Amino acid sequence: MSITATPAWQALTAHAAKMRPRHLSDLFAADRDRFARFSVDADGLLFDYSKQLIDSETVALLAALADAADVRGWARRMFAGEAINRSENRAALHIALRHREESLLMHAGGEDVMPKIRATQARMRHFCDSVRGGGLRGYSGEPIRAVVNIGIGGSDLGPRMATVALDAYAHPGLNVHYVSNLDAADLAPRLERLDPRTTLFIVTSKTFTTLETLCNARSARDWLLAAAGDAGDAAMARQFVAVTANPAEALLFGIAADRLFEFWDWVGGRFSLWSAVGLPLALAIGMDAFEAMLAGAHAMDNHFRDAPTERNVPLLMALIGIWNINFLAAQSLSISPYSQSLRYLPDYLQQLDMESNGKALRPDGLPVGASTAPVLWGGAGSNTQHAYFQMLHQGGTLIPSDFIAFVESDFPLPGHHEKLLANCFAQAEALAFGNDHADPLRTCPGNQPSSMILLQRLDPYNLGRLLAAYEHKVCAQAAIWGINPFDQWGVELGKKLAARLLPAVEEADRTIETDSSTAGLLRWYHQHKA
After folding, report:
1. Among this protein's residues, is 355 annotated catalytic?
2. What confidence tier does 511 reach under pLDDT thresholds 50, 70, 90?
3. What percent of the residues of the chain are helix, what percent strand, and what percent coil, each to the nearest 5?
4. pTM of the full predicted structure?
């Protein structure tokens, strides 16, 4: 049965009709304890959702919806290693990658996955220590000073975001770069500024067949071999690494067997930061810090599994999102981390949320019957205040926001962080309550809902907690909507069409059967090609 046909959904529909005319100003005026009632301190992670357009009845009805969808049962099946990725008949055990108890057993397909995970983490530690300590040297005998990760999607967004986020913990003599775009403007300028004698390449691809990644990797390989000359074999053996679930293809590419780091088909790409996909991050911050991030994520896993609904941060995030999307008709979600170091967090969350839940059909092929993933967007505050916040304040469209901030700055300069936090808190207040003004053009109506996440500092442990909270939020929403968040068939169609069109782009006289628009584009391209 579709979740939209349940009594819990119908009760929320009726309740929303009563809540829509209400204003946050009135809700706060009527309840002096509203912050205490609608905030959770989860071991130093504060989640304040008091500025959402809800009351106690809303939360109770949303909790009933979670029960109707059996979110708890879905979570138990995920933690047990059942094949909850139904369309691909796979487990989704990214949670196993960050489990810290040595005695823990976690199974996928009847196999305990923990020995493989521990062995890979041990290899990552040895490799990171070698590179960071100067033991791994390029073909000329000089130590590695630059790392270039070549990947796209889940093989790029997670480690790239986290490397920038944790720059305060980075090795001072090792620069980590990321290349993802097929456009040569991403790779070529980097190669121009790098020294082939001291550059290590990591090719990250689950299948090792991804077009963009392999094209960039071949160009990087050609660049390295051209520079190395007769030392080309040594250069490939020392300076190319693969992170993949398909080691056979990596070996065919020329990666040495002792330079392969494996992850597994039960690790979804956008949930893979915690695996060997995080190798460039581990090289940047060190394996101790990487494992601290895993520990933070593990702590959030335990919180999600064990905390009751009314104190469960990821589940509350999920339910509030459902409320805003399906009952208040919000179509987007603004992410505003008040941290320059988290400037790539919205990009990362775009894939996590929209690629996971941007689906209108359940695994049985029947329609969900309701909107699913919101359009997720955002940027780092306070820059965003001078970009799109005008629309949030006076645009007339309901757009919920997530604010993320820290008590301490990761790069403290006197007089900066207090001003940053004042702006963060003020924007949330202004969005909620607005203002009255004699000039209607200066009036802000308010009643724009937001949540606030506050942590002590941006360190590896807290970054792990934050990212795991968003992962569980997305998965809990998928469980409620009845969709599979672990496949992405919509991504495949464009890839197949690109492969079919490539010969006609490469050769002017190659004709293929296509629509008149695409055919016209091909003709115009060849007419104007130099």
Report:
1. yes
2. confident
3. 55, 10, 35
4. 0.97
